[in-house]
Amino acid sequence: MSDLNAVTTAEAPGPAPDRPRRANRSLAGDAWADLRTSKVFWIAAALVVIVVLMAAWPSLFTSADPRDCLLGRKDAGASGGAIFGFDFQGCDVYAKTVYGARDSVLVALCATLIAGVIGVLVGLAAGYFGGWLDAVLSRFVDIMLGIPFLLGAIVLAKRLSSNPESNGVLAVIVTLGVLGWTTAARVMRSAVISAKGQDYVAAARMLGAGPGRLMFRHVLPNAISPVIVVLTILLGINIAGEATLSYLGVGLKGDAVSWGIAIAETGPYARTAAAPLVWPSVFLAATVLAFIMLGDAIRDAFDPRLR
Amino acid sequence: MNQEILLDVRDLHVEFRTRDGVARAVNGVNLRLHPGETLAVLGESGCGKSVTAQAIMGILDTPPAHITGGQVLYRGVDLLQLPERERRKVRANRIAMIFQDALSALNPVYTVGFQLAELFRVHRGTSRGEAKRRAVELLDQVRIPDARRRVNDYPHQFSGGMRQRVMIAMALALDPEVLIADEPTTALDVTVQAQIMNLLADLQRQRTMGLMLITHDMGVVADVADRIAVMYAGRVVEEAPVYDIYGRPAHAYTKALLESIPRLDHKGRQLNVIQGLPPALTDVPRGCSFHPRCAYAREICRHEEPPVYQIAPQRIASCHFVREVLGV
Amino acid sequence: MFRFIVRRLLQMVLTFFGATFVVYALMFAYVDDPLQALVGDRPVTDSQRAALNARYHLDEGFFAQYWHYIKGLLTGDFGQSLTGRSIGDMLSQAWPVTIRLALLSIVIAAVVAIGAGVLSGIRRGGVFDTVTLVLTLIVLAMPIVVLAPLAQLVFGIQLGWFPPTAGRNAGLYELLLPALVLGSLVIATELRVTRTSVAENLRADYVRTAKAKGLAPRRVIGVHVLRNSLIPVITLIGVDIGVLMSGAIVTEGVFNIPGVGFNLFRGIRTEDGPLVVGFVSVLVIVFLVINLIVDLLYAALDPRIRYE
């Protein structure tokens, strides 16, 4: 999970570089032209579409109910619609795996949105205003980075999920969102600092644009692309984060269906029945992979130097 | 001047094969260098002068660069035919090179002493202590004050001029017979430039080295060079003793270059800059490659590559209108 | 160098207070009943309540609580778990095996990542490079909750190459599979950074100089390129220690290794709040100290930092 964080810090997609543009195309248009020819992009996009469909309309993929478990068919092999067989409680593994996408994607999307908003605002403020505000915010980011991600998440998630009534969705969203914004803020800050120095910003300022307009109309649009890359990868990290917290017992719980819970529950029985452990693992890894590949492809399109 | 030939480059061809096409960077260059002589290779950026130098050294990255023809004879031995192992013994020992930007050309994480001593240790098998002592000696020779202490400093702790002195010390460490200096003063302040050029000239005289000075700056050349080879689009278009070139250029390009230098006695007159840009190496014009920018160009220049005219014992020029340019 | 160390130490003091404060705030700030937050939804006896109050000063203000907590940390008093065991004792029993595991996985990860990363970086676009890139992508996509149970299943149970669990006195061989799992968490990023860094450095001017000095390719890469390329990798290894800590919680849980992560894993499962806060605080401190050491190492590798 936070290992993925390291990718984005280490190969931080800098602000969009100067490069020869093809005639009459914006940087985004150029990037899109690159993306369209990228195999990695299309594979990732296809995977993402499948996962999102699965999350939105699980009934498209299975007619079984993941909570319809019969101990009588415990560890039974594949039959009919239950192509992955049944787990130790007699639940349909395929149905559980399909339904596991829902909360995973929901949690990751919301958490990434929160992290994105915080990260963009903090980075924008630090980069645009500079001075003491930048110093304070940057120190705060350093402090946050001084806490290994999962350790902080465990503490916060444990505290938020102490309400026995909830199924933990909100707690995990807040946990991942509140702790996950640091990379986005760092990348945003450096992108803003370089965008701020561009001539067109100076020109807009001379034409009398106020700070709010300058920040949101001129600087933000030109500094946002590296942040989008970071957030795409963060989606993958958050999918993994939700699974890990759920696995540890401080994430989703109760009647929630989650890949992390499935892995935790079936792990000890893997010796007798491997399928209930293997399939949620495969789906989880494939989903994380899809978002990382998507992020990689977008970064390559925006910044060919890093290829 | 000694007539023995140290370095003889014959009909050298280098091309870069990239995704965007083949760039012909060097198209049949001929150069000769004698002991104790300074040959200036002059040309705009992208004319192939640095590529020629790196081809002589054998440090081009292949791919994308490919040497497609010609010979580089050092004392009669074709370096291009030598196995890499033998070739490495020539570098620094016989032919050494210094680069334009000494800050990036020196390794930032090792002391200059380490980088100097490395030469003795690798090529001569000298002991650590002895190599260090030799490094101090070398820094002394290139007139770096307090060499004994500074030998332990890192490149970023030196000023630009001092760094270039370190580069020179490194190049001269193993007493090479040929020194190739690729724009050695371009990155420096004007006052420092003169100091470095004087240092180079002094060291060259002491050691009777052949010096190949690559530059785009005609001002630098005038004081130190014996002969000048003017390059354009990967070819030597004119070669002559320095006074002849300044007095009476024989190629239209050389003439245009000279006229584009601001001169005090021409104050108030309009400067004759050369129109246009040097050609892209992926698309060198047919005929004489200079014709699109040339004031003398006529129909023949568009179709026929000009031959090389021997216009005096030590002068050649490759221009259809040598006579007109010379004014005879 | 001296000034660099002093500045880094000051920074670390600030980060130390900041990070411990954040951890403490995550747990206790704005809680109606901090005690309930600490013990979860299990019932609390009056004597437990009194003991916890005495330990955490929960009846005092938030900043006073933090003050008592930080005083405990600095004097090596990490409190007691809900089961009444001293957290300090638990830690000292748990450290040895965790340190062995961590060292093993760091070494495996660094050797593989740097070795393969250098080879990939030298021949970018070659077969080896392409294969490694695909492999790293797959490894990157495997969260620890996938990696650890699957590795145990495949290599420990089905293939039987390694023992599926390791005990307190686990030797090198028992720890090898967990260490590989743990190392895989950081191998991919370290490898990719090495690769990019080597490829960039190979294009640097000083490499051309080294070639012009007549050095053999082995020396150009082994002496000149490698040291420059390692600079970003070393910084990354500091960050990766945090990843390893997180990963150790799941890995030690899965492989039954009674180390620090295992204790934390059980503490989370049993909702033992004091244990979790105590262990997490200590791990955060260890993380900060290791990063300080890594920074000093970084300065040793890169003289430009030392003399700035």
TrEMBL record, chain A:
Domain ABC transmembrane type-1 per the UniProt entry, residue ranges: 101-295
Predominant cellular place of this UniProt entry's protein: membrane
Protein's membrane topology: Multi-pass membrane protein
Annotated InterPro entries: BP-dependent_transpt_permease, MetI-like, MetI-like_sf
Keywords for the protein's UniProt record, in alphabetical order: Cell membrane, Membrane, Transmembrane, Transmembrane helix, Transport
Subcellular location: Cell membrane
Pfam families on file: BPD_transp_1
Matching CDD domains: TM_PBP2 (cd06261)
Family: Belongs to the binding-protein-dependent transport system permease family.
Protein name per Swiss-Prot or TrEMBL: ABC transporter permease
Source organism per UniProt: Paractinoplanes bogorensis
Taxonomic placement: Bacteria, Bacillati, Actinomycetota, Actinomycetes, Micromonosporales
Automatic annotation (TrEMBL), chain B:
Sorted UniProt keywords: ATP-binding, Cell membrane, Membrane, Nucleotide-binding, Transport
SUPFAM superfamilies xrefs: P-loop containing nucleoside triphosphate hydrolases
Record-annotated ABC transporter domain positions: 9-258
Compartments it resides in: Cell membrane
Nucleotidyltransferase among keywords: no
Protein family: Belongs to the ABC transporter superfamily.
Name of protein: ABC transporter ATP-binding protein
Top-level taxonomy: Bacteria, Bacillati, Actinomycetota, Actinomycetes, Micromonosporales
Automatic annotation (TrEMBL), chain C:
Record membrane topology: Multi-pass membrane protein
Record's keyword annotation contains Nucleus: no
Compartment(s): Cell membrane
Stored PROSITE patterns: ABC_TM1
TM region(s), chain numbering: 12-31, 99-119, 131-155, 175-193, 229-255, 275-301
Main subcellular localisation: membrane
Gene3D superfamilies given in the database record: MetI-like
Keyword entries, A-Z: Cell membrane, Membrane, Transmembrane, Transmembrane helix, Transport
Keyword Transmembrane: yes
InterPro entries linked: BPD_transp_1_N, MetI-like, MetI-like_sf
CDD domains tied to this protein: TM_PBP2
Entry-linked Pfam families: BPD_transp_1, BPD_transp_1_N
All residue ranges annotated as the ABC transmembrane type-1 domain in the record: 95-298
Record family assignment: Belongs to the binding-protein-dependent transport system permease family.
Listed name of the protein: ABC transporter permease
